[in-house]
Amino acid sequence: MKYNKREMELIRTLAKCEDIGDAGAYYTKLSEYRTEILEKSNLINLSKLLEAFSHLDRILILRILMEKDRCVCELEAILGKGQSTISYHLKILEKINLIKGWKKGKFTHYSVVQKTIENFRHLFNNWISDESIKMNTNLF
Q: How far apart are CA 90 and CA 87, in angstroms?
């Protein structure tokens, strides 16, 4: 197998770090393991959802919308933030389908998409309670 410069440096480091015979083969196993983890565990989907929760204003917006559908002006009043800041966070939440907006006259109202919230709970709970992680402390 042909390796690029970065991979060769990493293989040399692995050979020094781990007690292994063939560092190249070990590197290949580690690469395959990365692919397996990403395919089996929905980590990409989970990371997109967690990214949306990475700002306090977005968490607050979700909390507020879980209680009641609101228009942007209500969110401005509750959060004490400007319309552009609120709209920025709403756009991020709407992009990954955590909330949905609809026009009501001149105003846009928002609500939580319960199916996405339930999907997040499922993904997160599966990730933190993954028995295979607890059982497989030494994969190779």
A: 5
pTM summary value? 0.72
Which uninterrupted H or E stretch holds 42? none
Which of 42-46, 56-60, 67-71, 103-107 is predicted with the least confidence, judged by mean pLDDT? 42-46
Cα 14 to chain centroid distance, Å, stands at: 29
Amino acid at 30: L
Are 86 and 76 in contact by the 8 Å Cβ rule? The answer is yes
Question: Is there a single domain that holds both residue 21 and residue 53?
Answer: no
Q: Is the dihedral of CA 56, 59, 64, 65 positive or negative?
A: positive
Q: What are phi and psi of 94, to 5 degrees?
A: -75, -35
Return the DSSP state at 102: E
Please indicate, yes or no, whether residues 63 and 36 belong to a single structural domain of this protein: no
98 phi/psi in degrees, rounded to 5: -80, -30
For the domain that residue 103 is a member of, what is the CATH number? 1.10.10.10
| Residues 36 and 57 grouped into a single domain | no
Quickly state the pLDDT bin for 140 (edges 50, 70, 90). Answer: low
